[in-house]
Design brief:
Helix content is 5%, strand content 34%. The chain has 135 residues and is mainly β. The protein has one domain (4-117): Metal Binding Protein, Guanine Nucleotide Exchange Factor, Chain A. A 5-stranded mixed beta sheet has the order 8-9-4-3-10. Strands 1-2-5 form a 3-stranded antiparallel beta sheet, with no helix packed on it. Strands 6-7 form a two-stranded antiparallel sheet. Strand 6 (61-65) and strand 7 (72-76) form a beta hairpin. The longest helix has 7 residues, at 31-37. The N and C termini lie far apart (46 Å).
């Protein structure tokens, strides 16, 4: 049986389907991933065997590689949403977990580059939780 996942960007211009299993799921806290995501960490799924099919908007994707590094990202040129890409080094498929519309069938394997986490991240688990916007 083939694992299938679908996803799209925020504006809906770029849509894709992933066929095959994910090997790992990491939450990366490095400064580069924090800048990419604008958040405490990036949440990316990785697969060495899965295939991606672009259903629409492939031409709206922009891929960026930080000079002098292996750090890459891909995003929709219309809305800026993070999009899947194949790493230039190694060819591994990287899928931002938040870009998926399908349920993610694996749990994160680990927090990586945790020593680089933002100083405001400690204690987040104890914050009050709301199911919607606070009043």
């Amino acid at each position: 049986m083939t694992d299938l996942a679908t996803g799209q960007c925020l504006c809906g211009a770029v849509k894709f389907r992933i066929s095959g299993p994910f090997d790992s799921f990491f939450l990366c806290h490095c400064a580069r991933c924090r800048k990419d995501s604008g958040s405490a960490h990036s949440a990316n799924l990785f697969s060495s065997t899965a295939q991606i099919t672009w259903l629409s908007g492939e031409e709206k994707r922009t891929q960026f590689q930080l000079a002098g590094s292996r750090h890459e990202k891909c995003f929709c040129s219309t809305c800026g949403s993070a999009m899947p890409f194949r790493q230039a080094h190694g060819g591994v498929l990287v899928v931002p977990a938040g870009s998926l519309d399908s349920a993610v069938k694996i749990q994160p394997n680990a927090h990586i580059c945790y020593a680089s986490r933002a100083d405001w991240e400690d204690g987040l688990a104890s914050l009050e939780r709301f199911d919607g916007l606070p009043e």
